[in-house]
Amino acid sequence: MDIQEMLRNLAESVTTQVSVKTVFGTPVSAGERTVIPAAHVRYSFGAGGGRQEGGEGHGGGGGAWISATPCGMIEVAQDGARYIAFDGGRKLGIALLLGFLAGAAVVGLRGPRRVEIVKRQE
After folding, report:
1. Left if phi > 0, otherwise alpha if psi is -120 to 50, otherwise beta: which for 105?
2. Is residue 80 part of a domain?
3. In the 8-state DSSP scheme, what is residue 119?
4. Which of 6, 61, 68, 118 has the fewest CB atoms inside 10 Å of its own CB, making it the most exposed?
5. Dist CA 102 CA 107 (whole Å)
6. Closest Cα partner for 37 from 24, 55, 21?
7. What pLDDT, in 10s, does the model give residues 32-65?
8. Is residue 39 part of a domain?
9. Is 29 part of any domain?
10. In the chain, how many domains are there?
11. Which residues contact 83 (CB under 8 A, 6 or more apart)?
12. Which range marks the domain in which residue 34 is found?
């Protein structure tokens, strides 16, 4: 199997796993509303191969990586449809920044400390 064929097989394998159902989950109906979960899907793949000089040995390999992270939902109702984004990353960043600033304020309010180094005579 040459490298081009290996890459083609790997690409076909990844594209069959990443479909509309991967990005948009199964719709859930409740009353007159329908919610469709949405995900951010990322994928990458690679392959390589080689031959030993002066020998008949050769080798190759490949791999793929797929990641799906929930990013929001689509709400469909009689008055229309809207996209509702999950913004948890922004809230986490703000919380970390506020925690850092609070810690810096506590250290700053304690004031300078005097450190003495005493040498012992032996």
Report:
1. alpha
2. yes
3. P
4. 118
5. 9
6. 24
7. 899 998 888 887 777 777 676 766 666 777 777 7
8. yes
9. yes
10. 1
11. 38, 72, 73, 74, 75
12. 3-86
